[in-house]
Amino acid sequence: MARLPTIVTPAQMEALRLAANGLTARQIATRLNISEGAAHLRLNGAAHALGAHSRTHAVALAIRTGLMDLTEVRLTDGAQKHATEPLHGRLGTAPGCSEGKPVGRATTP
Q1: Helix (H, G, I), strand (E, B) or coil at 109
Q2: Over the stretch 75-97, which tens digit does the pLDDT of each residue have?
């Protein structure tokens, strides 16, 4: 017997859209006037319906399958700055390192 496709509810999609925009479950709950637990349930329900293993994966699958459009994803001011600054500006220095060597793995071309 063929498996029927699982449906993502409008409430789950709204929570997923907010998560795609960088909101935490607590912030989603505040925005939607629901409990934080209900926000987690909506996010987990969407992830389960899409066959995702995380919220990030659920957002990616929603975009890939056309359930969510990239125009619905807006970076917050902090995320926008973080996404546009050069990589070397985001690397920290090793604790106790006075030379200021970047922390992180460098890739060779």
Answers
A1: coil
A2: 655 444 444 455 444 445 445 55
* Nearest one of 74, 71, 69, 67 to 9, comparing CA atoms: 67
Contacts of 67 (CB under 8 A, 6+ apart): 8, 13, 50, 61
How many residues does the structure list for the chain? Answer: 109
Could you tell me the two tokens for 8?
A: 């993502």
Q: What's the CA gap between 90 and 73, in Å, rounded? A: 22
The whole-model pTM stands at 0.63
User: Which residues are registered as beta bridge partners of 102?
Assistant: 93
Which residue type sits at 19? A
